[in-house]
Predict the 3D structure of the following.
Amino acid sequence: MSKLFIMAGTKGGIGKTLVATLFADAATDFGYRTVLFDCDDENHSFYNAMKTRTVKEQILDEVVLEVNTENDFPLDKVMNKIIAVESDKKQYPGDNIYIIDLKAGSTSKMLDWMQAFPFDLLHMKNLKVNVIGVVTNDPDSVTTYIPWFKTFKPYIEEKKLEIITILNEVDGKSMQQFHATLEPYLVKNFPDSPVIILQNLSRNYLTLFRELNTSYGRIGKEKEIDLSKLGWMGIIRCQNEFKVIKEHLAPIFEMNSGTGDKK
């Protein structure tokens, strides 16, 4: 089954693009074609990290969200592309993973646009829709995320949408804001909503990856990337960390974590 992952455009600086790259790299390792859209026209981080990947099949595009008129809906282009690819199984056989990396602070705009989102059409095409929200110990990462649940509660209950929470331990393992606010809300309203913990990855490594325009899942796999600053132990450590991340993501991709095969 093909899957669409929309990175909720919540608080900036909490690791949304990092998570988008982890999902893209895991999808490639799991044997999916990746169709990627970078909608952050300020940083271009997702596009830069993905544009030099040496994968057999990848579609990568940049989309500017700013509009000039009230009737201009930039994300329509993204959805039209997704529907076109998913409908053309002759040219694009097999399952696809679609990832939309939204711009930080775009929650209000995106929730308005998604009032016309084609949940029913995508459900008919057997394409599973997911929203990914990244949460840290920053209170704003929680308060800007909860509206996604409130807005789309009917679609979640109808199994036409799943919202996945990523707890990013970027500032340590303390998740006071999650435990105090979001966790009780999920337990009461959405007890089956997945929550995945992303271990505290090295900021030094992440900074280096941005400089090299690469990502965690590519470390040690592509000879074109100069990893001399990382060293052999750094390479091994990153590969081990990504292996653990893939194991955590395997159920989301409907994979058997032990074998890496699709269920």
The radius of gyration is 18 Å. DSSP finds eleven helices and nine strands in the chain. The CA atoms of residues 153 and 173 lie 29 Å apart.
